[in-house]
Design goal:
Its EC number is 3.5.1.19. This is nicotinamidase. Keywords: Hydrolase, Metal-binding, Pyridine nucleotide biosynthesis. The protein has one domain (10-153, 163-220): 3-Layer(aba) Sandwich (Rossmann fold). The chain is 24% helix and 21% strand. It is built from 7 helices and 8 strands; from the N terminus they run E-H-H-E-H-E-E-E-H-E-H-E-H-E-H. The protein has helices at residues 19-22, 35-42, 64-67, 145-151, 164-177, 197-204, 212-220, and strands at residues 10-15, 48-54, 74-77, 89-92, 118-122, 156-162, 181-190, 208-210. A 6-stranded parallel beta sheet has the order 5-2-1-6-7-8, sandwiched between helices. The chain is globular, with a radius of gyration of 17 Å.
Length: 221
Amino acid sequence: MSTTDSTFTPALVVIDMQYDFVYGSLAVPGGSTIIDTINSLLKCPFAIKLASKDFHPADHISFAKTHDKPVLSKIIIYPPGKPLNNRPLEQVLWPVHCVANTPGFEFVEGLDREALDYTVHKGTDPGIETYSAFRDPWHLANTSLHGILESHGVTDVFVVGVAGDFCVKWTALDAVNLGYKTWVVRDAVKSVSDAGTEWEEMKNKGVRITNSDEVKKLVTG
């Protein structure tokens, strides 16, 4: 498959390559080691190249400090404005991270941000956690990502970044559910846990797992 195939319109989606996720308060192990690989993909002729950024208010629901609880403890959250028995979800509580317009929110140094066509903000509502770059877990509110991809006629979404077991995974699963052929580039992803269960979960739900060399062949033809 290549760009000569009229049914193939690829997009590169870079997930959360921000200072706090690479070097800061919620650093993903090995996050800095994938910057060069991501930059090499950003040089490829994707139809469109986008990045997501967590854009949290200072009192975001995912912060342990907001609840005066220990980091990595868990709470149950509910969709705002809905009955308390309506799709409750378990929420891990994280260190304060990626607060809007702070240094930790910025793209990590070394990422080729000039190659990006769009940046999508997520996690902007203080009462809703949003791992996926497409929408919140209850599908109450969408980011701009799906609309941008649709407007460019994208057929295939290639996902890279951090963290593989959280925001990368949920973005990829939503991409499949929204009808995109979805690929996660394994050597351009790092995860919080080393358990690796996210890869089998994604494959079982229709995500294709690939590597950067194969992606370059696909996209450049």
